[in-house]
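User: Last request for today: this protein with flavin-adenine dinucleotide, please.
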Amino acid sequence: MNPIFDYVIVGGGSAGCVLANRLTADPRIRVCLIEAGKPDNTPLIHVPAGLIALVPTRIRNWAFHTTAQAGLNGRRLLQPRGKTLGGSSSINAMVYTRGHASDYDQWAALGNAGWSYQDVLPYFKKSEHNEAGADAFHGTGGLLNVAALRSPSAFDQIFIDSAIQAGFAFNPDFNGAQQEGVGQFQVTHRNGERCSTAKAFLQPAKSRANLTVITQAQATGIQFEGKRATGIEYRHQGHAKSVRARREVILCGGAIQSPHLLLLSGIGATDELASAGIPLRHHLPGVGKNLQDHLDFTFVFRCASQSLFGMSAGSVWRTFKGFWSYVKHRHGLLTTNFAEAGGFIRSDPSLTIPDMQLHFCIAMVVEHGKRLLRGEGYSLHVCQLRPQSRGTVSLQSTDPMVPPLIDPRYLSHEEDMTAMVSGYKATRRILDAPAFRQQARQELFTHEAQSDSEIRHLIRERAETIYHPVGTCKMGSDAMAVVDVNLKVHGIEALRVVDASVMPTLVGGNTNAPTIMIAEKAADLILQQFA
Ligand SMILES: Cc1cc2nc3c(=O)[nH]c(=O)nc-3n(C[C@H](O)[C@H](O)[C@H](O)COP(=O)(O)OP(=O)(O)OC[C@H]3O[C@@H](n4cnc5c(N)ncnc54)[C@H](O)[C@@H]3O)c2cc1C
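Assistant: Here's the final one, the structure of the complex with flavin-adenine dinucleotide:
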């Protein structure tokens, strides 16, 4: 007889760890969490600067690639995703932003009652322990530690001064009353270490007798009785196994893999499943559609400075000193998340809310950090917050171990290119402001582009993802919606999706905190029904 639990959660990432904690807080509820990756037992995860080794490699990273992108001159982009406890929150850049209040009001306006900003704000606050203290927008006492960087680079101020000189306002809190402006990011750190959801939520729950966590276990299909989900099949140490769910199966595999598992299990568009040779369980054409992501353009400058990170004798020495400072006090260079500062700007003053996000990085970021350049330098990233382009996640094989096809169709909507050019020019104004100009520096890659067509060419040649895919199991009630406002899969009993894939539209900010919020709210919805 296969083991039976009340809830089986697939994926121990940002959302899965939150759910595992909240559901097992009730000792009557038995939960099994299945995670494909290894445990999060490498210092590269916990030492913040270790992300430099995680993002461009396969270490605790699925390291997917997109299909060739017509809008990007046929390039295939790296699409990193965490493959470990904590999921992408274990390999991400730890920036804590929530998006704009109006993003959630738009979700509600699309027909998703209960998901307006006023509805979701309590869940952001519930998860949070903000070291800056509680106020109308922030919580203390929550499990997710949110802090200022302990040892920020002095160069952050040069970015902030330049942005102010270019006409943008300073903002001390992007998650407060107003999102717009530039400043330093708060980060998900605790005591100078990464505070992933595995650390924040799973660690305190792991010893509970009612929680079973199985790592290196990849779910390969959902089991059903008719249209009711009853369990999960998974592969563990070379063996096919299964586990049963008395109450519900909850998918938390993220925006790439939750739709993949639904498709493999026969839930998707009838014609697509038929051509893949997968028996239809339920026709749900929206599965894997509506993929949205933040496309990002990076300006890179070489600049001799002791406050920047790089490849030089001085930098190696500073990193070595930083190592000791980290070991002894959890301070110094190794506490950096690289994307230390940034902001939200309007590339066109006639807009009512910011349409671009900036990430200022204290290193020269080229190809996700894969290419290490000689010397020190900095990068300024600009990404379009609400792209119109929509892509897909689809099957390339019926073998569950073969990744799905990921086609974000970046820049397939003409307005997105217009917005990116506008964002490029706004960022260029910051880079040309006196505070940056006073630094002796060399501009790499972008110095020759002047005309709009040259800028468009550069964007097609060089833009990358800033790692925020969402929307592939969107919440709603229209024909393309996959889950309802309670995150239950339409037409199927006892099956929910709880992760970044349920966002109907991409929020204007980083996506970890919003995903944690979704899981907090989902936990409440599930517990209300448990009784
Ligand atoms: C490199 C990078 C940098 C980022 N930087 C930031 C940032 O600074 N700030 C921010 O807010 N956001 C950032 N993000 C985005 C953010 O981390 C994600 O949006 C968020 O973590 C998504 O959470 P999720 O729960 O949807 O998926 P994930 O956290 O990716 O979790 C999915 C989990 O499911 C597991 N899984 C998948 N399929 C299966 C299966 N079949 N069986 C078993 N397990 C499975 C995966 O291994 C993974 O652990 C970044 C992301 C990346 C990759």
